[in-house]
Here is the input.
Amino acid sequence: MATDYLIRVDGEVQRPRQLAFEDLLAIEEAYQIDDVSQWAEKYEGKAIRLDGLLAAARIKPTAQYLGLHSSHDDFHASIPLKAVRERGIVIYSLDGRYPLTVESGGPTRFYIRDHAACNVDDIDECANVKFLDHIELTVERGFDNRPEDEDEHAQLHREQDQEGLG
Here is the structure.
């Protein structure tokens, strides 16, 4: 199903948004990251800081969890917002001229800089969600289907490596 937006931001926000590529480019320069490799060595491209997206949607003070949803592969993570609010970025372009392709993990990719430093059990490498198309802010923990044990986690990463999408 094709849409005219890359990412939807809703839930505990005053201004739910459906952001197209041009909308992301237009978010205040202070929130833009022109070279993602400065945050994440194995990635490249242009990103927006999570706090910039939250400002655009006017997050409510009741929001406690960040729901990250990918309809492409039916992957969902719900993580404590406070731990990632200033560390999270949304990668949306490789070159600043075109949106991320599915082959690059698009329409957008969520990445947490130094996720281990968050010191929260709910935040692991699997909270770095590819094919991200929906961010949902919630009061309580939302739907989360990340692997629950080391075997499931290892299997997921083997599959991603085989697909070249790690």
Observations:
- Helices lie at 21-26, 50-57, 81-84, 150-163.
- The first strand starts at residue 7 and ends at 11.
- The radius of gyration is 15 Å.
- The first helix runs from residue 21 to 26.
